[in-house]
Amino acid sequence: MTNPLLATAPDRHASVHASAGTGKTWLLVTRMLRLLLAGAAPESILAVTFTRKAVAEMLQRLNERLALLASGSDSEVDAILRTMGEEPDAALRERARRLYEGLLFAPHPLRATTFHAFCQEILQRFPVEAEIPPGFDLLESEAELIDEAWDALYAEATQTPDGHCARALEALFDGCGGLGNTRQALNSFLQQRIDWSAFTQDQTNALAYAEARTRALFAIDTDSDPELEFFSSARTAMLGDYAALLGKHTAKTFQEHAATLVTGLDASAAITERFARITGALLTGKGEPRSLKASKALEASLGSTGSARLLELHETLCTDLLDTRDRLARQAALALNLAWHRAGQGLLEHYQRIKREQRVLDFADLEWNAYRLLNGSEQAHWVQYKLDARIDHFLIDEFQDTNPTQWRLLLPLLQELAAGAPERPRSVFLVGDAKQSIYRFRRADARLLDAASDWLESELHAERFSLEASRRSAPAIIDAVNRAFSAGPLAEILPDFPTHSTHRQELWGQVELLPPLPDQISEQLIATSERSGLRNPLLEPRPYPGDDLHVCEGRMIAQRICALIDAGTLIEPAEHARPLRYGDILILLRNRTHATAYEQALREAGIPYLGAARGTLLDSLEVRDLEALLNTLSAPHNDLALAQVLRSPLFAARDEDLITLARTTGTTWMERLLDCGPYYPRGKPWSGTCRYTICSTASITRAMCSNASSPPRHRR
């Protein structure tokens, strides 16, 4: 296997395909250190990744290693240099010691940034060339402006109910099944606005161009009426013959279908109704042709000639009917797509207008405008030249999460770098892992990692390196990964999957498959999902079989965790073995949708855990109760906040207490509360101490008395 340290050589272009835990971030930081050791100016190094957290981690690791080089002994510095692939000597050791200070006091620091921050920097330097407002602000959250755009779209449709926008929205309401699905469909249009801009780029009329391309794709004439054309004179005669032959058969179903066909041939009925009747007679509920085969009973009723004619008509009519249904489906799909394009374009125009008025750009605008500036503008070569003058060494992390727009805006910079003077030290280093691509919702395409590696190999003679040896996983985990990706559906997704290994052969590990649910639990879930009859929503919550399933799985996981803990399972190498602790266990979920079900199972088992929920502390009941208490103290007239405080565990008021307050006269609930207490009439100062459980209106009054000279103490 090729030594991965070769990828960190300052004079080498390299792409690294590194699996999780193989040290790709260490390799990236090592590359940066070796560039600095080779004399590269800090400002000439640009490292790009996808999240601010990744940027912070990258800089933290760089500073930690620089600090070790600055403060370590000669032997320690030499050891660090050797791990980086450098052969230490006195001069190199001295340069390594000075790196930290040099980086701290550099006029222009080394740049580690996110893709969006990089785009923002470019646009801030060249706003006129990019045709955007100078001094624009970055829109961190889009929700509020999207709501404004929706309001503007509704207003436009209301003002011109016969206009294109109103008709498009109406078509989407019908085709998508209501307002909620329509909003979801058009919000997806906004999310894919870069794709729309790329699709309609350089077109004077974007909507007309998109509609023409869509019509060509569906290859269907929207002005034709397939249902009317189905009832041609020749086909009507065929349907009549078919109905007559069916009617000669004595079977009840044949008689019923024949009668249905006769009603479908009634020219006085509406075309849509006639077509539905013909469909019901010829096709099953799943839209498949009804089974009709030659049989002795059929020949006995119709004769051999009549039976053959019936089967021939059945096959021909079913084929024609399916073809007509297909044409109808394509017409409906085309109409729905055209409506989606028109309404989506209208929503996008309102959204873009609102942003222009407020002089803000969102993250998609940063990518798209930077792409246009570097590829399509008249000043593209000038901007590329100015940027190229500042960048000598380009490092890109997590390249598997790159989307096509990001790759296309990077490509001109790489081309400038490839065309630079040979005497100027330049380099490109990118690292990624196709298996770790997680930003599909942001248009990330893992295939771009191979495409970029191929481009670097052909244009810059770069080398491709692979890292498959994990530095943190036990052999049991790696073996499970190899088996999963070497056979079955995953093998089709990654056909060139290399066998992984691990440096930690001494680690204890175990992989267990979650057993199937017990039969009685499965039957219970099925019975719950197939329940008949009405449910009283006031007394019984709506059943969610999926949640029940995940709760059951969570309980099985909790039972297994308890068994491992109770058995004193030993982990770590044999000489340092210790019992398994709760903190050693990590439960991985595909997404957070059902995380609460698993957390519920852990709580039931008494297992301490750190939840996967983010930003939910302020939404917890305890914090909301405290917030209501503060609202009550600052605004005593807030009756709803007071009611929430009284029902919270702070005061544990009963329903009867709140009913009493509701029936008491008074302007606000606070005034009613003060009047309910027999011990503290308003205006009388507090002079005692509450030392018993608060459970009645009177005791609540004592605790909440706003006229107390010193607040009462209470305990539940």
From the spread of the alpha carbons, the general shape counts as globular
Low-confidence stretches: 679-716
Determine the mean pLDDT: 84
Largest sheet: 6 strands, parallel
Number of DSSP helical runs: 30
Structural class per helix/strand content? mainly alpha
Overall number of structural domains: 5
Describe this protein's structure.
This protein is mainly alpha-helical. It folds into five domains: 4-51 and 108-125 and 365-467, P-loop containing nucleotide triphosphate hydrolases (Rossmann fold); 141-358, no CATH class; 473-506, no CATH class; 519-604, no CATH class; 618-704, PCRA, domain 4 (Orthogonal Bundle), CATH 1.10.486.10. Helix content is 56%, strand content 6%. The strands form four sheets. It has a six-stranded parallel sheet, sandwiched between helices. A two-stranded parallel ribbon has the order 4-5. Helix 19 links the parallel strand 6 (393-396) and strand 7 (427-432). Helix 7 (143-159) packs across helix 16 (296-358) and helix 18 crosses helix 19 (404-418). The chain is globular, with a radius of gyration of 36 Å. The two termini are 68 Å apart.
Structure in a nutshell:
The chain has 716 residues and is mainly alpha-helical. It is built from 30 helices and 12 strands.
Keywords:
Rossmann fold; globular; 716 residues; 56% helix; 30 helices; 5 domains; disordered C terminus; mainly alpha; six-stranded parallel beta sheet; two-stranded parallel ribbon
